[in-house]
């Protein structure tokens, strides 16, 4: 498969801030590729460079084989970009928004009706409603529809699920799956680690740096230290106590439990669980129960980010 995106040491600075720091990666054609990272990681800046809206200070990027700086005018017709915010006209109706974006690219909503059907069909009941009056999930679907209306060969979606309720998040990811099945290359960013498993490959970003690029399964498999799950009625007190544990590399809430990453890589899990339980009980967490647990991709990400922050 040829590459849909090739980035080579792409760098962008704003004053003293290095928003994107020498990022190199490739996205294959037809791939659903996710950038995962917290606020300020550089996702928006990178997406704007790949969508030809911002010029990198250093490095080079090619999208669909075209240079994002030298060939921007050709590329703009072939790329769909959905920014995190402000992509719709709030006072225009659903249909008027779609028609507007179609006209920018010299086409019409009618001509593109079949291509946008998987999304537009869900919007059609609200076609005359002003965009401002749509729910968060519907706004995102409309923005996606507008980004697709000129039949791009690649789609860049910047945080499409931020601020969207859980059901709409799932629906949006299902839609991305449907679009991927048509052969479209999709590059998406998100601050939510639990969305990683919906991607073919993910890139973990923090402070402008790529920490890992791999399949979700490989990122999870690379987690190589004992992970312990703690249950206690007073989770807050247990968290404070566990943070004082000398072998804890990272301690964080995880669902109903706390996760404690033990720094002793090669140790057997069970004795470590007993040792932590004894430590917590000695610190007043009388009901502390500790067991070894299998890492998820979120644990793997947190470990990478903690290591990097410590370095
Ligand atoms: N136009 C700008 N001028 C100055 N600094 C900027 C500009 N755009 C981004 N930055 C800074 O660059 C860094 C990366 O920002 P960016 O918006 O790319 O991150 P992000 O991962 O998309 O996070 P967010 O979800 O907050 O947008 C941040 O420190 C941000 O403050």
From TrEMBL:
UniProt keyword annotation of Transcription present: no
Keywords recorded for this protein, A-Z: ATP-binding, Nodulation, Nucleotide-binding, Transport
SMART domains named in the record: AAA
Gene3D superfamilies per record: P-loop containing nucleotide triphosphate hydrolases
Annotated GO MF terms: ATP binding; ATP hydrolysis activity
Superkingdom of origin organism: Bacteria
One protein family per Pfam: ABC_tran
Transmembrane segments: none
Domain ABC transporter intervals: 5-232
Family (UniProt): Belongs to the ABC transporter superfamily.
Protein name, UniProt field: ABC transporter related protein
Species this chain originates from: Gemmatirosa kalamazoonensis
